[in-house]
Specification:
Rossmann fold, alpha/beta, 3 helices, four-stranded antiparallel β-sheet, six-stranded mixed β-sheet, 10 strands
C-alpha cells in the first residue's frame, strides 16, 4: 500500500518492510560483535518496540535475556516531554549489561528517563539500540550505540509505531501527509 489512513490522518509509504529488515540486520550485527562473551539483558520499551525487539532478537546470536517495560510520553502526534511508567522492571540489574531496545528516538526524553533509572538500579553498562533515529528532533546529550536507520523529523506509523494507539500493525512504515 502506498497510502493509508489511520484515524483522522493520511500517511504515505516511507520505509518498506525490506528496508526495515536491513536496519534490523545492521543493529543485530553490531550487537553480536559488541556483546560477544557477555550475557546482556535486552530491555524492550513497550508498546512501540515490541515488533523491532522480536525481529532483532531472532538475529542476535549471543546468550542473553529479555525483559519489558512500558513507558509513554506521547499524546496524539506530539510528545508531552513527561514520561509515564506504566509497567516497571522486575529484574535485578546490579552489575548487569543492559541493552535498551527502542523503536525510535526522536526528542530523547523517554530514553534519558530510562538511562537515569537503569544507572540508579546499578547496571554496570547500559547500551541503546534503536531501529530509527531522528537527529533533527534529538534534544539530549547521550550516545546512541546501535542505530538501524537515520530518518527525517516526520511523524510516522507502522511496524510498532502508532498514532493514538492505532497503526502499529503495518509491516511497513508510513509518514504523515501534511
Amino acid at each position: 500500500m502506498n497510502n493509508i489512513k489511520v484515524r483522522d490522518k493520511e500517511f504515505s509509504l516511507f520505509l518498506s518492510a525490506e528496508e526495515i529488515d536491513k536496519g534490523v540486520e545492521i543493529v543485530a550485527e553490531m550487537i553480536n560483535q559488541d556483546m560477544e562473551g557477555r550475557d546482556p539483558l535486552f530491555l524492550c520499551v513497550l508498546n512501540g518496540a515490541f515488533i523491532f525487539a522480536s525481529d532483532l532478537l531472532k538475529k542476535v546470536t549471543v546468550d542473553c535475556e529479555i525483559s519489558f517495560v512500558k513507558l509513554s510520553s506521547y499524546v496524539g502526534t506530539q510528545t508531552t516531554n513527561t514520561v509515564r511508567e506504566l509497567i516497571g522492571l522486575d529484574q535485578v540489574l546490579y552489575g548487569r549489561t543492559v541493552v535498551i531496545v527502542e523503536d525510535i528516538i526522536d526528542t530523547g526524553v523517554t530514553m534519558a528517563y530510562t538511562l537515569e533509572k537503569l544507572r540508579k538500579l546499578g547496571a554496570s553498562d547500559v547500551r541503546i539500540a534503536t531501529l530509527l533515529f531522528k537527529p533533527e528532533a534529538f534534544k539530549k546529550n547521550y550516545a546512541i550505540d546501535y542505530v538501524g536507520i537515520v530518518i527525517s523529523n516526520d511523524f510516522i506509523v507502522g511496524y510498532g509505531l502508532d498514532y493514538d494507539g492505532h497503526g502499529r500493525n503495518y509491516p511497513d512504515i508510513y509518514k504523515i501527509i501534511d
